[in-house]
Every structure is written in structure tokens, then in C-alpha cells.
Amino acid sequence: MNRRKANEKKNREKVINLSLAILEGVFRIGEGAFDAFIDQKSFYKKLHQEDFASNLISNRIRDFINRGYIEAREENGRNSIRLTRKGKIKRLEKTSDCSVDGKWRMVSFDIPEKNKTLRVKLTRTLRRIGYRAVQKSLWACPFVKAQEIDLVLKELSLERYAANFVVDKTDIEKHLLEIFDDVL
Fold first, then answer.
1. In a shared domain, residues 83 and 119
2. In a domain, 44, yes or no
3. Which of 12, 28, 34, 64 ranks highest by number of CB atoms within 10 Å?
């Protein structure tokens, strides 16, 4: 039984690693071409060389297309893919890059009660990216990756209810350092 659980855990980790590799790979290749679609077949070959089974790659990409993380289309008789905004957010949530540059990324929002579901989605995503609540509607993060929060605001159509800032200096820095003392 323990061997089976160990194998299941190993397979789960492999799928997670593949998922991150797909999101990161499509992002890096697509960004270099201004969000252009990339050739799916050559992308498969690249990932397959990194020791992922081709059927696993196909299944994950199909799953990402179904979930709306990846957009697919046919170009010149070839299947092409690119990350959607939702896919870029998922990549942002999953990335382990926690580099800091001494600046604070802050998001302040006032979302009406009728949009409570969107507010919950926003705060959940903020947490996943690395933000922490300073007050109910003021969140802060020291990580450089958090600067891409506008993707989330656009995806949820909350731009008019939120403001995001990158600040070098703040009078609450001592409090922010206390909030993030476990990661800084």
C-alpha cells in the first residue's frame, strides 16, 4: 500500500511539474513574439525532450484548453497555442519566484456587495500570488511578480473598483515587514 501511495505521489508531482512547465514554456515563447500563437507540435517536442510522456503533455494541454488557460487555433495547417489572460494568472499564482526589489506592490479596492463573488475571487488570487491583507481592502506584497496584478483586475473586470501601486517608501513599512517577517 505504501509503495502505491508513493507512486501516486510521484505521478501527481510529475503532472504538477509538467503543468508548470507548460504554462511557463508557453508564456516565455509567446511573450517573445508579443503574445503570438506558437506551434503546438514543436512545443510538444521540446517538452518531450524534458522527460515528459507525449500523451501526458497532450492531456495536460487539452485540459488547459478546456479550462481556458490556453487558447488553440489552426494556422497554416498547424495547430498553434498561446496563454490566455487566465493562463497567465495561473502561471503567476504557481510560480515560485519570490524575488524582491525593496518596493511594495499594493492593491486597494472597494468592491460593491453585489459583486461579492468577484471580491472573493480577487482576494483568493491575491493570496496565491503572495499578497497579504494590511486591512480589509488594502493588500500588499514585496515580490516583483506581484506587479502583474493588472492581469487579475482585467480578468475579473474590477479595474474601476481597484487601484494598484508600486511604492518605494511608505509610513507603514514597519507594519508590512512584520506581516511578511516569515518570508523576508
1. no
2. yes
3. 64
Shared domain for 49 and 65, answered yes or no, is: yes
- The strand pairing partners of 138, in sequence order, are 108, 135
The SS3 of residue 134 is strand
Domain count, the chain: 2
Q: Which residues contact 23 (CB under 8 A, 6 or more apart)?
A: 64, 69, 83, 87, 90, 91, 94
Residue holding cell 511608505?
170
Residue type, 117: T
- Reported pTM: 0.79
The strand pairing partners of 71, in sequence order, are: 82
Last residue of a domain, one of 89, 120, 139: 89
